[in-house]
Amino acid sequence: MELFMKNSSLWGLKFYLFCLFIVLLNINRVFASHNIFLDLQSSSAISVKNVHRTRFHFQPPKHWINDPNAPMYYNGVYHLFYQYNPKGSVWGNIIWAHSVSKDLINWIHLEPAIYPSKKFDKYGTWSGSSTILPNNKPVIIYTGVVDSYNNQVQNYAIPANLSDPFLRKWIKPNNNPLIVPDNSINRTEFRDPTTAWMGQDGLWRILIGSMRKHRGMALLYRSRDFMKWIKAQHPLHSSTNTGNWECPDFFPVSLNSTNGLDVSYRGKNVKYVLKNSLDVARFDYYTIGMYHTKIDRYIPNNNSIDGWKGLRIDYGNFYASKTFYDPSRNRRVIWGWSNESDVLPDDDIKKGWAGIQGIPRQVWLDLSGKQLVQWPIEELETLRKQKVQLNNKKLSKGEMFEVKGISASQADVEVLFSFSSLNKAEQFDPRWADLYAQDVCAIKGSTIQGGLGPFGLATLASKNLEEYTPVFFRVFKAQKNYKILMCSDARRSTMRQNEAMYKPSFAGYVDVDLVDMKKLSLRSLIDHSVVESFGAGGKTCITSRVYPSLAIYDNAHLFVFNNGSETITIETLNAWSMGACKMN
Ligand SMILES: *[C@@H]1O[C@H](CO)[C@@H](O)[C@H](O)[C@H]1NC(C)=O
Ligand SMILES: *[C@@H]1O[C@H](CO)[C@@H](O)[C@H](O)[C@H]1NC(C)=O
Ligand SMILES: *[C@@H]1O[C@H](CO)[C@@H](O)[C@H](O)[C@H]1NC(C)=O
Ligand SMILES: *[C@@H]1O[C@H](CO)[C@@H](O)[C@H](O)[C@H]1NC(C)=O
Ligand SMILES: *[C@@H]1O[C@H](CO)[C@@H](O)[C@H](O)[C@H]1NC(C)=O
Ligand SMILES: *[C@H]1O[C@@H](CO)[C@H](O)[C@@H](O)[C@@H]1NC(C)=O
């Protein structure tokens, strides 16, 4: 803990307070990734409350979900597995639930694929990934928990019947476990194997998340036959003071195209991405860099920050993400888990469910080569219904207008803002340079009027803004450049006076050059208790989970606002009511 406090005092402090809070409340214990409520793990949902359930995000009919596992495309079918508690709405009893889809939007829920049953996974079947071997045979490698101390090994599972188009049944062969940790590895921090890739030497490689002291690391293992795995002398990469790395994900991205690449792709014009879910910070961080195959090491670019101050896949409720290559559309797709914002388990028990998966997003390297870009997969657009559109509408300071004619609790909104000058941008206080963007958003929220911004959307809003979640931009003038803050601020998202509600002013910076192009775009997917937003075409993404009490169903409203002195033009706004996806 001390180490964390030094480098990341704010998050360290928050985490410390959170631990203290848990200890004070005396609710069982905290270890690894989740709060543990032993007494509630197997209390089945009495009923499932609909009001905040999502309609086009992925959800099972009830109970707790977390990490997406082993997403893949196989013989015309998409598979999504995920960590699931079949017995209750808090974390525990984790199995691999399994769903299939033809379009990544509508899903069929199947029987669980993997669940604890053998010596090598009796105490848990945790996250993992799939690899499709060259003979078109899928294989899953996942983490098994072997005892009540949470000691971990890696196992594999294969489909029982390759002719079954849905691959319903999975077998865990008896030569498991595949990988047991050697003495140099902390056996309680050894999990979440990646998809395997093959090097030029014909050896398969996977990464496993781990930690030594406070150094997070992606351990590298190699194998010729996929059965016998040998640990490489060095991790593929590690970074000091980052805590345990969960769910590592490693993949190539093309320098000249938005197309995805298979993880074993070998060729020119590529960079690599290493994503880790930092267990202590609870966000997904990534760097862009080079994979030096001769030494089998990944080295982040010197302008890619490697740690808690680095780039995040999403600056909100979004964790344990995993990508897969979709050969049918030549793209790479990322899935991430979005947890609930109730800090205490009571609310989840009452509503009978907890956790959703974010909308699957296509992911590629930005032209700058400095960051990723993400965009909801195009199939989502098949759910778009009634549309409203407007163009060329000016908003001066303090103005706000309502987008009418769509269902504002279940919508897809795309808007392009423009402005004629940067002169009114407020000064960026140099003291903020050390803060996280979300702390700057806490200081400069949507009600603090400014120069260039705040302007954006007020989503899931009650009629008179008693509650709303604003998603907005604010432009600052820093010493050398402009800094563009994008916020998704949950602080006024609900009137419910629940002290234990998580209502962060999530935010990230947007790396665009406004000097030439005085335009900023924003897309928000609004789905009852989630607002998933994409700034500047997907350069900065923020997901908020919120629980309005007034702004529900037809009482939810959508506004566009400007609270800055520079007049903002809405060049175009397209908004659609969204249909519900099929999930059965
Ligand atoms: C395998 O799946 C196919 C297609 O669903 C089915 O016809 C066949 O009976 C299955 N085989 C076994 C052994 O279950
Ligand atoms: C291993 O990890 C656990 C959980 O983070 C930690 O409590 C323990 O101190 C670690 N053990 C060693 C030897 O570092
Ligand atoms: C673009 O990059 C891909 C690999 O990412 C490569 O196969 C292709 O040849 C490149 N095209 C050009 C025009 O450089
Ligand atoms: C960072 O890397 C770039 C390109 O690889 C190089 O040109 C530059 O000199 C490096 N900068 C520093 C500070 O090392
Ligand atoms: C704009 O600022 C005013 C004054 O602080 C505030 O009343 C209003 O709620 C703000 N609008 C939004 C959308 O936050
Ligand atoms: C989601 O829930 C909130 C509120 O309990 C926690 O603060 C977050 O840490 C948690 N996020 C993850 C990834 O577990």
From TrEMBL:
<dbReference type="Pfam" id="PF08244">
    <property type="entry name" value="Glyco_hydro_32C"/>
</dbReference>
<protein>
    <submittedName>
        <fullName>Beta-fructofuranosidase, insoluble isoenzyme 1-like</fullName>
    </submittedName>
</protein>
<dbReference type="GO" id="GO:0004553">
    <property type="term" value="F:hydrolase activity, hydrolyzing O-glycosyl compounds"/>
</dbReference>
<dbReference type="InterPro" id="IPR023296">
    <property type="entry name" value="Glyco_hydro_beta-prop_sf"/>
</dbReference>
<feature type="domain" description="Glycosyl hydrolase family 32 N-terminal">
    <location>
        <begin position="57"/>
        <end position="376"/>
    </location>
</feature>
<dbReference type="InterPro" id="IPR050551">
    <property type="entry name" value="Fructan_Metab_Enzymes"/>
</dbReference>
<feature type="domain" description="Glycosyl hydrolase family 32 C-terminal">
    <location>
        <begin position="379"/>
        <end position="577"/>
    </location>
</feature>
<dbReference type="InterPro" id="IPR001362">
    <property type="entry name" value="Glyco_hydro_32"/>
</dbReference>
<dbReference type="GO" id="GO:0005975">
    <property type="term" value="P:carbohydrate metabolic process"/>
</dbReference>
<dbReference type="InterPro" id="IPR013320">
    <property type="entry name" value="ConA-like_dom_sf"/>
</dbReference>
<dbReference type="Pfam" id="PF00251">
    <property type="entry name" value="Glyco_hydro_32N"/>
</dbReference>
<comment type="subunit">
    <text>May be present in two forms, a 70 kDa monomer and a heterodimer of the 30 kDa and 38 kDa subunits. The ratio of the levels of the two forms within cells appears to be regulated developmentally.</text>
</comment>
<keyword id="KW-0378">Hydrolase</keyword>
<dbReference type="InterPro" id="IPR013148">
    <property type="entry name" value="Glyco_hydro_32_N"/>
</dbReference>
<keyword id="KW-0326">Glycosidase</keyword>
<dbReference type="InterPro" id="IPR013189">
    <property type="entry name" value="Glyco_hydro_32_C"/>
</dbReference>
<comment type="similarity">
    <text>Belongs to the glycosyl hydrolase 32 family.</text>
</comment>
<dbReference type="InterPro" id="IPR018053">
    <property type="entry name" value="Glyco_hydro_32_AS"/>
</dbReference>
